[in-house]
Amino acid sequence: MENSPFNRLSASVFKLLLIGLLLISRPIMAHDDEVCQLQTQQQFALRQCMQVLDPHAGHAFSLTPDISTNAGLADNLKSASGLWVKISLNNTNATALKRLLALGIPDAFFLYLFKADNDRLATLFSLDQQTTFSQRPLINRFLYAEVELAANSTTTFYIYYRTHGKTPLQPVLLSAKALAQADTQNDLLNGMIFGVLMVLVSVVIFNRQGLRHADSRNYALLIIFSLLFLSQIQGYNFQFLWPEQAVWNMQAPGVISIGLLLAHGLFSIGFLQMRQRFRRFFYAFVIMMCLAVFSLPFAAQPYFTEWNFMLAVVYAAFAAAVGVFAVRGQVPAAPLYLLGGMSLIVFNVILMSLSVFWRNPFPGLSIFTYPKIAYMLEPVFFMIAVLNQLQRLNEQKAELRVKRQAETELLIKAEQDRLAALEDAKQQQLLLAAAGHDLSQPLASIRFAMDALRAREEHNAVEQHINTTLDYAQSLIQGLIRQARQEEGKQSDSIVLFELFDQLQNEFETAAAKKGLKLSHVSNNIELKGSALMLHRMLSNLLSNAIRYSHKGRVVFGVRRRLQHIEIQVLDTGVGLFETDCRMLTAPFQQGRHRDSAGYGLGLFIVKTLCNQCGYELQVASVLGKGSVFAIKIPVHHSTEQ
User: Fold this and answer.
1) What is the DSSP string of 387-405?
2) Rg of the chain's alpha carbons, rounded to an integer?
3) Which of 335, 363, 398 is a domain's end point?
4) Residue 262 lies in a domain
5) What is the DSSP code (8-state) at residue 297?
6) pLDDT grade, residue 60 (50/70/90)?
7) Sign of the C-alpha dihedral, residues 7, 12, 15, 16?
8) Which residues pair with residue 87 across a beta bridge?
9) What angle do CA 424, 429, 434 make, to 5 degrees?
């Protein structure tokens, strides 16, 4: 990836850009000290006749400025924080000319225009941080001063000023007509730029995703701060938003640039998903954004512009680096993000910073043209990137809808198969009920035979045992028929536990007594919703197992109330189970190590199966040699006492 065509092209572009900037800037590195020959031009650029003076060389200070007209002038001269500029104009006309001197900047911390008059400097124009917009000599968003040039003579002007950074003056001599034309052209061009930016915001906002998508919201925030920054450096904010807040107007560029950096950072983090893909860059961006926020209280400090410049350069370097990594990582729309970032770096960081802190590489262009180009190109690339992301998101959602539709169809088919299986089970249950009905006939015949034997023989224990067994078998068959009838009608029983426990006590008390065990239960008045037959079958199997594998002690069954369920427990003092047996015995035809030849290994399997059908849960706990606890956990919503 290091030698990809894109990387080689990027390196070549940077090299050509640096070489071009050096070649362009070389001719303007020397200070020209020429006198401009002025004739009747309506508009005349004064670059060639403007000389930036070294304040320590004594050029301007051989003349004495007139400080009587402005009390703050003495303090600003004493601070020596400004720059001196000398402009010499030779009016070759036979008549005096009145012109407007355009200074090329929208505002300044202070600016004083002097006219050399013998050995003193007469003040023609003065402006400081207290000067409101309405107090300007000429009401315009840029600074202008009226000057008069004597016929056939040379007039020398001195300007002492300080603005953000070292923003150079771009003096132009204009007539009133040329000023009106220039203002009209600039307002039209700025209106077109602002309109395009508003259209870009509208395209993203009124997309199908709109402001619901984070990238769209961050892009809209970025455009808003871009508009604020452009309107600030073009003087519109001071003219229309806060014309009476002169002090704030000088702090506004720094504050807005901080907001612009934050908006750009939020957009970059969200668009490139830095937190997931580029965690180190994510932390770097967060640190820079925090530094930007923490620096806001110092916006009124003299060197806040230099701090902003340094922060912007570092941020731009990281933005370019993460853009390159995103392209290498084949992040969707990353090339568009990189193009937008590069346009911002070239025009707003490199060219604008060179113009403010050094020299304008392209003297024919206003230094405020560079941010216009940057904030036109970058939003266009970013808008295309955002729309590309939204399109990909919509495609992914469409694919997801198709996938969900297929899954829904599978679920419908599965539900149909389940209903068919339930119908088959119902039919099998009806067949089982019919078979149970047929089986009940020979059992009834056996009972009739027992009645006949009873008339001939005395009552004995064998007869009682046979009768008990027959009663239980017939009850099971009757229960199967009853359950089938209930499933057909979708009805459920009401289970009174104390009645069920009394019935179980009577059924198993004799079998327990024969083994020398004491069978007891804890009576209660809980009433449940469900099948009494199913619960009877579960507890019958548990009690039968408990009695079978207990040789001394007792068997107890009852109910414990829990927070979310009701727990029916059967406790015995039998031989207990191994830990592996506890997990194994719920499988069919499985017996523990203390197996009984009379059993089939189906008891706990039947209980577990019935629990699953009823929505219960079977739990087994045992201590080898001490006994076991078998518990049926019934959710509390099955109780009628809720």
Assistant:
1) HHHHHHHHHHHHHHHHHHH
2) 48
3) 398
4) yes
5) G
6) very low
7) negative
8) 50, 157
9) 125
